[in-house]
Amino acid sequence: MRRTIRSRGGEEPFTSIDPSSRSPAVTMQAAVTALIVLLSLDFLSVQSKSDLRNSSNVQTGETGQKTKNQPHIIFILIDDQGYNDIGYHNPTIKTPTLDKLAAEGVILENYYVQPICTPSRSQLITGRYQIHTGLQHSIIRPRQPSCLPSHMDTLPERLREAGYSTHMVGKWHLGFYRKACLPTRKGFDTFFGSLTGSVDYYSYRSCDGPGLCGYDLHDNERVAWGQKGKYSTMLFTQRARKILESHNLTDKPLFLLLSLQAVHTPLQPPKSYIYPYRDMANVARRKFAAMFSTVDEAVRNITYALRKYGHYRNSVIIYSTDNGAQPFTGGSNWPLRGRKGTYWEGGIRGVAFVHSPLLKRRRRVSKALLHITDWFPTLVGLAGGNISQSQGLDGFDVWPTISEGKESPRKEILHNIDPLHKYLTETKSSHDKLSKKAAAVSPTKGATFKKPKKQKKVVKQKLNKKSGFKLKATKKPQIFTQPATKSKKSKPVSKLKQRSGPKSKPAPESKTKPQFQHQPILYHKPKIQSSGTPSASGAFNHKSKRTTSQNHNLSQSRPAQNKSKKELKEQFKLKSKQMFLQNQNISQSGSPTPRLQPAPPPLWDTSVQAAIRVGDWKLLTGDPGHGDWVPLQMLPTLPGRWWNLERSSAPRYKSSAHKNVWLFNITSDPFERQDLADQRPDVVQQLLARLAYYNQTAVPVYFPPDDPRANPSRHGETWVPWADEEEEGKYQGVYKKGKNAKKKRKKKCQLCKLKSFFLKLNTGMMSNGI
Length: 770
Hints:
alpha/beta, globular, four-stranded antiparallel beta sheet, 17 helices, ten-stranded mixed beta sheet, 13% strand
């Protein structure tokens, strides 16, 4: 039945159809249309709700939107990689993955680490120099009750507070004598790896001396049994890939510290990786290169997992070594000077690069000054954390420098101050030369230095409460404070006595150059400007009471009318000598030099091992370690013992004048071949003043003796925590060795040496057969 309805305004009529007269096909079509309309309306409503939720997250700053902007951080730390042990520095080392990642990112060519394992790792985790953690001296041995300070925050703790999931895989080497020292108690959610400094790559057996060996592989806080026979580099890579696979993209951002044991000794590469380097004549170098191929493969597997599981586009990959290479075990720092365990460039200039799609300026080489302590504030800032909560940081946020190429905020680096490592091989001849030099520039009439009766190592000073070197050692560490110049207890470097009469003769060395011709053992406090840095002139404005009394006596002993001709002649000689010295100073400097007073208290004891970098300048004092340049063809075949490789041994020769101050312009002389300490004494003084400044902020060295309770035989042949939590701070000061221990060390066994020689020879012959 059809009904027609007339519309208003003369419009066309609407035709209404009676529902009873509709066909089944028309009814079905209408139902489908209505369903589509309902579904579309429902979808729009859901989308509008999600848009409103997202917009509210952006406005309120909820964690959902924050997590989306926080990058995943993958930090890959390599052990004992030298400057010449990567493909883009040396093509003989086959590292195609590392070369590609570095070329597409930012290569850090002015990046510094510490010379040995524990200090570098502690500064990475805490962001503080080792003088502020008590770890100035050597590494943490497996039996030492030592670890990171409990009151100090760590990088994983700050990242976890920022919402990160934190994981560590590989080598720890920061102490484990208490459970509070374990990685899971220092901010990591999970840990899988070794706690000591060196383990076997297959058996995971770690030794700290004869009969002191134990199993060292841990999963969180439990011993990870059943992993023997699996190569550690591959095992650690598999665990890292599992972490990336199981991590939920929408849950939390990820921080993964992959601290590989490679390429630390022992040299144990899989045999299949040695074949590409079969042409290398040196066996140690051949094995070292093969182990590095396993590292390159591990990094390739990690980057593949990042892409596979969707983490790559929002990730930052940081690659770094922990210290320089050891040439005795196949590594190479050429053409840099020195090796692992030294403060020459070969021991502290590290290989590093950053690879990330988030970099604003990629495919470049950065020569900005960077240090391993900078990663703490840089990564916390990149994660959106609060750096202000970490007090006393020595690092800087260098992400704008790395990502955008801006100027580095870092202008100087304190490499270290180790008061327990002193250079105690002075000679009498060097003292005599220094005395003559000081006498040549002394402004006092006829004043000369007394010849020292006994060989003095350092000037004794009263212990200052502010000093950080309150230690107990075999030889007491010196205190490097800057006492007031008016102190009565402070003593000059050497005693002066006033000579007058016919026996006084002009010093023959007065025609030589002024001071610093030979580096003095003790430097003195220069004039400090308002900025806290010493002036270039190094002039002293203060006057000692001793000098005032001498000048007063001189003014009273002027020639009178009734003086004899002989006395007048002697006075004329003294005046002529003084005028000669003044004219000589004017001719050399171009301007009259102010009258110098007798030596004030020392600013720095240069027998202490220390190193600092300020701008282009680098200063070394004490014994910086083995300082030769070791080209590849000079690498030895038979490596030495592991403990000797951690710290450089004393030189076999004894020169007549031992040197303990070096100065280099690293920008113009990166290989440290031209020592400028004699030519630039003003720079030496300024850098010594900076060392004295840092020394005032240092904490005492913590280097306790070995604890017999750590013996693995007491814990099921495993390295595990052995002390109670209440034993923190039980040991004070440093390890004090007795006299008997020294006597035992001096004993030589010719038969033992012969056995050791043939054992090494047999090992070398067996290795050559590979």
